[in-house]
Design a protein that fits this description.
The protein is α/β, with parallel strands linked by helices. It has ten helices and eight strands. Bound molecules: 2-phosphoglycolic acid (PGA).
Amino acid sequence: MKPLIVANWKCNPQTTKEAKRLFNLVKGGMNKNVKVVICPPFIFLLKLEVKNSGLELGGQDCFWEKGGAFTGEISAGQLLDLGLKYVILGHSERRIHFNETDEMINKKIKATISSKLNPILCVGESERERKGGKTFNVLKSQIEKGLKGISKKEIKNLIVAYEPIWAIGTGRPCNIAEAQKTRLIIRKILSRLFGSFLAEKISIIYGGSVHSKNARSYIKEAGFDGLLPGGASLKAKEFIKIIKSVS
Ligand code: PGA
């Protein structure tokens, strides 16, 4: 399977011009051996031309209701209508700054699955939880609650992103051995939920201070199926180096 690289642009850049420029530069550096999904702010989704680029677009979030009186929200169906296939859900920045709970994330996961989108469920422990030896329990709880009520049939397109909070945006990535160990923990939690045969089919990707020099190791050594770079995805040259390094 091709490595999956999901670029999380977060609330960047500030203008359509910059977004188009970044997107077009990345387009020029695309590699057929890698699957690249760009997740820009919603407002840029219609402005970026994916046709014949080899790139895909994804959302950074979506709402769980189909529509209605929910000011400011965007539904999974609306994202599907734009031709999107992927949606990041439960990112720690949404959990921390917007008080998203596992229950809310679970509703969003269900909405994306019903809309035939591929949800990327982000899980990860804080520095404090890690130091207190709570990583397993935190991941178990986030995964079990986030995927509550999801049947074996529905997990086909699920992606789980391991994003240790202490590694996000800090320039302090998780070391490869620890990341590999945690990937196996996530696999075990998924196996308990869905059986090992199906759990093996769920892609597990890594995010947290990924750059062009460590990207390859997460895939080739730690065994991840892909990556979720944030900061590095905003620098075209660096991001293209990441794509090349894992191809
Ligand atoms: P980072 O962000 O690569 O800037 O650490 C990753 C993320 O938040 O998904």
